[in-house]
């Protein structure tokens, strides 16, 4: 089946495009990275994940470890033991509507730099404190890009305000499409999320595979493959229509 992909870079603009089409930048997309912090940034990311078997999102989205009130991890805002620099505890609001609220003004909030750092430390993935702000920006930017791709799929349906119910990290579960890419191209995603979307009363699951691209100018490049899971006939039809559109291009 066809899928939609997004080539997401820390160098801007970020492209979110359908596979096989010319990449385009979304409206209002700005560079999330402070380029004054660029030197050595990529190597710091590599060192951060070197102590683990896989690079993955440091924020644990497993359902067994989430706050049942908002289906997101509960992360401390206090400084971690041994931390030298005070990090911001401010949380940035996303553009993603929450499914547990009736108003479209209620959005999901991203972790603060301090929460992000604590999540890394808890997983034995210590990060240079001076780069945490940049890592949070990239984390948030990737999620915004993923949501933009979800909205493209959702535009096929009558629901005008899809909302995110929850998300689940599944880095160890290789999706069928990722296995095909591995077989054809020899690459595997470094992370996987399943996003559960409320389509005006109907729950729809999306699968998002995160791939690491070739670094450019010492900045990381990421590719997102976003598509509805084939859990019902409607999602199968969406995937088939997208495949047909891609074949005609």
What does this structure look like?
27% of the residues lie in helices and 23% in strands. The protein has five helices and ten strands, in the order E-E-H-E-E-E-E-H-H-E-H-E-E-E-H. The protein has a six-stranded antiparallel sheet with strand order 2-1-10-9-8-7. Strands 3-4 form a two-stranded antiparallel ribbon.
Briefly summarize what is shown.
This protein has 249 residues and is α+β, with helices and mostly antiparallel strands. The protein is built from five helices and ten strands. It has helices at residues 41-49, 113-122, 132-154, 176-185, 233-248, and strands at residues 4-9, 15-18, 66-67, 72-73, 93-97, 107-109, 163-169, 191-199, 202-212, 221-228.
Helix/strand order:
EEHEEEEHHEHEEEH
What topology, given as strand order, has the largest sheet? Answer: 2-1-10-9-8-7
Q: Over all CA atoms, what is the radius of gyration?
A: 18 Å
Helical percentage: 25-40%
The total count of helices amounts to 5
Secondary structural class: alpha+beta
The percent range for strand residues is: 15-25%
The major beta sheet can be summarized as:
6 strands, antiparallel
Low-confidence stretches: 7-56
Distance between the termini: 16 Å
């Amino acid at each position: 089946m066809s899928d939609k992909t997004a080539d997401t870079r820390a160098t801007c603009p970020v492209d979110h495009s359908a596979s096989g089409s010319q990449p385009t930048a979304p409206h209002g997309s700005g560079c999330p990275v402070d380029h004054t912090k660029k030197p050595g940034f990529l190597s710091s990311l590599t060192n951060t994940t070197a102590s683990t078997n896989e690079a993955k999102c440091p924020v644990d989205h497993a359902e067994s470890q989430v706050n049942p009130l908002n289906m997101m991890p509960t992360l401390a805002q206090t400084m971690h033991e041994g931390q030298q620099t005070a990090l911001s505890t401010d949380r940035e609001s996303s553009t993603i509507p929450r499914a547990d609220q009736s108003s479209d003004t209620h959005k999901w909030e991203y972790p603060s730099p301090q929460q992000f750092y604590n999540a890394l430390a808890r997983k034995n993935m210590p990060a240079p404190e001076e780069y945490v702000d940049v890592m949070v920006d990239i984390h948030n930017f990737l999620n915004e890009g993923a949501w933009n791709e979800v909205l493209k799929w959702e535009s096929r349906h009558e629901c005008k305000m899809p909302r995110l119910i929850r998300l689940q990290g599944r880095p160890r579960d290789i999706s069928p499409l990722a296995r095909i890419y591995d077989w054809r191209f020899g690459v595997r995603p470094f992370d996987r999320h399943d996003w559960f979307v409320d389509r005006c009363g109907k729950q729809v699951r999306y699968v998002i595979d995160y791939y690491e691209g070739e670094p450019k100018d010492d900045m990381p490049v990421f590719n997102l493959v976003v598509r509805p899971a084939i859990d019902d006939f409607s999602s199968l039809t969406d995937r088939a229509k997208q495949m047909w559109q891609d074949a005609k291009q």
